[in-house]
Amino acid sequence: MKRLLISLILYCAIASVTAAEPVKVLIVDGQNNHKWAVITPLLKKHLEAAGVFKVEVATSPAKGGEMETFRPKFSDFDVVVSNYNGDLWSEEARRAFESFVAGGGGFVSVHAANNSFREWKEYNRMIGLGGWGDRNEQDGPYVRYWEGRIIRDASPGRGGSHGRQHEFALDVRDPEHPIMKGLPPRWMHAQDELYDRLRGPAENLNILATAFSDKSTNGSGHHEPLLMTLTYGGGRIFHTALGHDVPAVNCVGFITTFQRGTEWAATGKVTIPVPADFPTAEKSSSRN
Ligand code: ZN
């Protein structure tokens, strides 16, 4: 009897491992001032390569189209990834998204998704920091990292800017966070826009990594937060300001933090390992 019971327990344990459900991801796109139709397939490919995700895409009508028809069923998924920067979603879609995240759903904001929806207060609480769309001091403080501290600067001025595109170093600021654990303290990121002067409500905001925005590249002269986590009700959010174009999205530093950030937003844990081709402090690393 005892042996049978042990066999049964073992069987169940093995069955639960082999039958592990994939993390269900929905990527939303359809409007963006970036090449969303090129970038979304790369985001999907990079997630699928991790082996733990099942990915679907919901594409909105084109700009000026009938947004009432865009009603993704967020509740069918564990995490929503936004590659969207465009027209305001319908009231119904907005309320559904708020309920999804507040109720424990994951959300990942990629690059210009933080340009979207200045007028949608709850969305800005989810992303914490945003840029453009006429954002200014009324939207919240600038948030910078300085000597181990997060500085909130309420001074007036535009929200969102960037200097010229270049390769730049990411500095890890929360090495114990599951998304960052095992990454080198500094790595080179492939050519990208380095967002600066982002501002927003910045509630429940944790900075995972920053990059120094050098005035020599028309930057701000500050250490700018580029990888962040937030919470919104019961939901977890991973915010990556990286990913302007193909070289940035194919950078192994982007891919790894995007995969791990998406898993963390969905489950609160990270099982995806740091790959052998992860960039070093001196050299970026890319995949096709
Ligand atoms: Zn961009």
Explain what the structure shows.
This protein is α/β, with parallel strands linked by helices. It has a single domain, classed as Rossmann fold (3-Layer(aba) Sandwich), CATH 3.40.50. The chain has helices at residues 2-18, 36-49, 91-102, 121-127, 246-249, 252-267; strands at residues 23-29, 53-59, 79-82, 106-110, 142-146, 149-153, 161-162, 166-172, 186-192, 195-196, 205-212, 223-232, 235-240. The strands form three sheets. The protein has a nine-stranded mixed beta sheet with strand order 2-1-3-4-13-12-11-8-9. Strands 5-6 form a two-stranded antiparallel sheet. It is globular, with a radius of gyration of 19 Å. The model has no long low-confidence stretch (mean pLDDT 95). Bound molecules: zinc ion. Residues 34, 111-112, 193, 244 line the site of zinc ion. The site of zinc ion (ZN) has 5 residues, from loops.
